[in-house]
Structures are given as structure tokens and as C-alpha cells.
Amino acid sequence: MAKRGKRIDYERFCELVKQKTHADQICKALGIVSAATLKNLQRRMMLDTGQVWEIPGLEDRRRTRSIKFRPSMGLVISRATMAGAGFKPGDTFDVSFEGKKIVLTKK
Prior knowledge:
39% of the residues lie in helices and 17% in strands. It is an alpha+beta fold. The protein has two domains: 10-61, no CATH class; 68-106, no CATH class. The strands form two sheets. The chain has a two-stranded antiparallel sheet with strand order 1-2. A two-stranded antiparallel sheet has the order 3-4. The longest helix is centred in the middle third of the chain and has 15 residues, at 35-49. The N and C termini lie far apart (52 Å).
């Protein structure tokens, strides 16, 4: 059987959720890198306990998506990311650089 990814300490996760710890702090403490993993653990906890558990800041994490820099293509931003931000195919942007940030401003 193929080896699966890193195991998350489920009991520690449950403790942090019960203490109403922010999503970013939970991720940092347990080494979680994706909102999907966090959401799956939340679902498991709800099924196990029969209660609804809110994780502060979880919805904010879902808005951040990875943008890739590829030497042959430049920056690659998915259609879903652009549509989620209210942009449409054909929109044009001005590009500016602020320190280590790239800022796209719709024209």
C-alpha cells in the first residue's frame, strides 16, 4: 500500500478547535498547509462529536490560492481564482511591485 502524507495529531486539533483557536494558529501548530486538510479535519470532528464546530479564520484561508511562476509561462493564475475575485476573461491589468508583493490593478 502506498504511504500517505504526514499524519496530523487529531486529538491536538480537537483541543485547539474547542479553545476557539484561529485557523492560522492551528495550521502553524500542526503543520497543516492547506485549507482542504483543515476542513476535512473539521468535518471529521463534527461527525465524531455530533456537534457543529466553527474555526475562526477558516473562511479567510479559502480566499488565498497559490499562484505559480513558471519560467516558460510567467505567472499562472487559475480561472477559478480570477473569477472568485470578480474578474472576467479579457480583463487587463496594471502591474506594480511593492517590496516582495506583486499588485495587479484592473484597468
